[in-house]
Write a structure and sequence with these properties.
The chain is mainly α and 179 residues long. The protein has helices at residues 2-21, 26-40, 48-69, 83-119, 126-144, 153-158, 163-178.
Length: 179
Amino acid sequence: MASLQVGLITLNETVHTIYERFPTTEAVINEVEESLHELLEPATNATQEETLASFQLLLRQMVKTVIEGYGWEPPKEIAEEDYSGYADSIVSIFNLTFGYFCICVGLVCLIIGILTLLSHRYGHSRMRYISIGANILVGLAITLMSTMVLTDAAGNLGTTPWTLPALALILLTCMSILL
């Protein structure tokens, strides 16, 4: 029972943190507060299905608020009840963003590597040519990462802990090329 109380307190703090950081409409805030109130102080005759429905509504509204707070909106209107359709449309936006990001970063790496190679100052060492070649290969690899959106690989990458390290490695590579 104590762990349930701790979980509800954490849920309450999470809801308040989200709605302090992300603006939304008054209607959404009222709906979320009503669902949160039903969870924190359930009626004596509340069924498990009603409690689960309140929790799902609360979770859906929080996810929707955070996603829209970052400026991602579904490409078409999705019914409020169709949460899986909403989630699928957001995943399609993520895949589009991921694909364009990889293409752009990879092409920048390729162009910088090729322009560095074409600038050909006399006196480049063998290590400099190896470095330029490595940068071109990394740019090509990053560009080819955009093909991950053709399968479920991009979505799978988004759910693994490797998303942020992959992004950091891509940006680190770009910074090493520019230096």
